[in-house]
Prior knowledge:
The protein is mainly alpha-helical. It has one domain: Helix Hairpins, CATH 1.10.287. The chain is 81% helix and 0% strand. The chain is built from 4 helices and no strands. It has helices at 2-38, 43-75, 81-92, 108-144. Helix 2 (43-75) crosses helix 3 (81-92). The longest helix is centred in the first third of the chain and has 37 residues, at 2-38.
Amino acid sequence: MLVQIAVGTCLLVVNIIIAAVAAMVLEVxxxxxxxxxxxxxxxxxxxxxxxxxxxxxxxVVTAGVWVWATALFELGAFGTLEEAMHFSLVAFxxxxxxxxxxxxxxxxxxxxxxxxxxxxxxxxTALLIEALRQIRLGQxxxxxKGG
Length: 147
């Protein structure tokens, strides 16, 4: 049990670091694009922003699923990488179909992966909303000042 908790904790930390670095890179991209985002027209740029950030979030989630699937496969919790990937996608998204289960000695990782996915989706959703809010506030302020 302690080995499962240790492995799960390491995988959680790796995924948290991936999400944190992705958020930092996204912030740098926003700073570079700020002058462009503030110029008219605003609405088409919001569509581009929403699509771009959504794809970015999807990439971060995909990376998280791959981290878990690869680890589960390497640990021998599944016979094939495809089974590990299917399970990880189902666990990370908290869908929990239960059609494929890890080997008994690794089953605690399922809950840890679900918690990781739940946390990632919450944090990344907050990032998406905050990005849109900051851009819209900046656009309104820029328009108010006559820029």
